[in-house]
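input
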Amino acid sequence: MYMKKIIKIFNLMIISSLICIMGCSQIMYVNKFNIKSSHKEWVEQIGLLSHREIKIQSYRETDKSIEIDINCDTSEKGYKAVCDIVNKHNAYVLENPDYFSNIEDICFATYEPSGEFGMMFLNKECRYYNIDNYLHQLKREDSCELQYAYILMDADISGFLSMDGYVTNKVLIMDYTQSCLNPSDIGMLLSKFSDLEQVIIADTDLAYSLEDIGDAIYSYNDKLEVYFVKSGQLEKYLP
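output
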């Protein structure tokens, strides 16, 4: 009888602990034991769950789309881990062009530990941040590669700028909604993109002139196409 009472109390303690954990946790991170993906080979090959510096905050998959929210600290190691996943995804798509034959939209978004949005990597225009209003105007070929990188410029990207690494996006979207990277530092940002072809400045409140930013980009690489977003339309910048 005494042992049964102890076992009963022990079981109640376990149940209470589980309820407390489930009720008190604000974020239930995804791990290799609870990720619900029909693309297990891809998840493993790109190392989605193998980096200590990041946590997968959420994984959403439908027949047509994959959206992943990544909780990433703002250190060099955190951003390098994210870029490693993006690069491996792009390499996987090139090596396996038919793997995502039914998938239309793929998006990786990063968030700081505070919950603030940082960067986003996507394969085509999406509904977030009004990107779908203008991105299609580039008329790039459809691909499941993460062709586009979107950066909210008031986010803390110091770790990204100082990391020893690069990312293989072809288009960079710089959103200057609230703050602005000094034109003299733009070369440092662009150097993190190994395959860059086009740069879009989504400007609403610039601390510097469009010409200063455009000239800084061309000074770094005059082969890049530079566009400004004006009234929802892309306008090509010519120095």
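quick obs: The CA atoms of residues 109 and 120 lie 4 Å apart.
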